[in-house]
Amino acid sequence: MEKLVIIGSGCAGMGAAIYAARGGLSPLVIEGTQPGGQITTTSMVENFPGFADGIDGFGLVWSMRSQAEKFGARIVNAVVEDVDFSGSAKKIFCSGGQVFEAEKVVIATGASSKMIGAKNEMELFGGKGVSTCATCDGAFYRGKDVVIVGGGDSACEEAVFLTKFASSVKLIHRRDELRASKIMAGRIMQNEKITPVWNSVVKEILIGSDGKCAGVKVENVKDGSVSEIPCSGVFVAIGHKPNTNVFSGKVDMDEEGYIKPKSGTFVCTNVENVFVAGDCSDKRYRQAITAAALGAMAGIEATR
Ligand code: NAP
Hints:
Layout: E1 2-7, H1 11-22, E2 28-30, H2 57-70, E3 74-76, E4 80-84, E5 90-94, E6 99-107, E7 111-113, E8 130-131, H3 134-137, E9 145-149, H4 153-162, E10 168-172, H5 182-190, E11 194-197, E12 200-207, E13 213-220, E14 226-230, E15 233-236, E16 240-242, E17 274-276, H6 288-303
Parallel strand pairs: 1-2, 1-6, 2-3, 6-17, 8-15, 9-10, 9-15, 10-11
Antiparallel strand pairs: 4-5, 5-6, 7-16, 12-13, 13-14
Helix pairs in contact: 1-2, 1-6, 4-5
């Protein structure tokens, strides 16, 4: 039986792996469908402490991975399909019929951004003009025109953040009223650089001759009219979903599927010896550094 299995290989999983490996647990990391996690889709990470010149997302998490392996973590390519946390031996059932048993488990499966489903969205995602993280990628749009899609707090917060760099930000929302809190909505309406585009959905992202985003084709849902908005970047901020389906009914979650740490803890679930770290439990901060830090906490708890 394994001493510790870590499910997920993003910043949270690797933070847990480094600490648990150094704590002598020789953790087994199940890397999941996206080895390295969400950060691998970010071209340049400029806000991770310690990298003054920035580092590409893939390089950052792969360096964490080498660090974990150096101390004895083992990484397997598998996808978890089911778990049984009812006994003292935690069972983890993976694709291909592999079953792992462990004394302790860290769940670090992350979250996925919801996407709009517009034409060319995925082709231009990650470095060619479509991003789901203004905090990560906003600075690449200095002096450029961008659009942001969504009407919640995230879209509003990110729109305001983008005005630090972009010359103009068009906020495209499918209704004529923001879902965001009053205070956030107020900031949007008062910001001269932000123009709301109401009752509109993005149907297509236009590709320029350089192979990057050149604009968006937008449909007005009230009258069906279609127009084009030229822009260099499209930020999608229509919410996230935690990657926690397989843990449904196995650990406490909130109504959106985020795993709930026990009151007064950051990383302990309601199930003894099952810990959680990163974006599958944190819907507020969602940064590489905070995920890695929560992973470290889970690794420490598992080692204790
Ligand atoms: P959210 O509140 O669920 O808002 C998502 C927005 O995207 C909504 O305006 C929604 O439109 C729109 N949307 C959803 N699916 C869409 C689609 N397929 N096409 C076009 N638009 C779509 O998500 P969030 O903004 O990420 O916020 C999540 C939670 O975190 C919220 O509780 C929020 O308050 C919180 N949060 C707080 C802060 C803060 O306090 N500083 C910052 C960020 C987030 P409709 O309005 O028409 O449904």
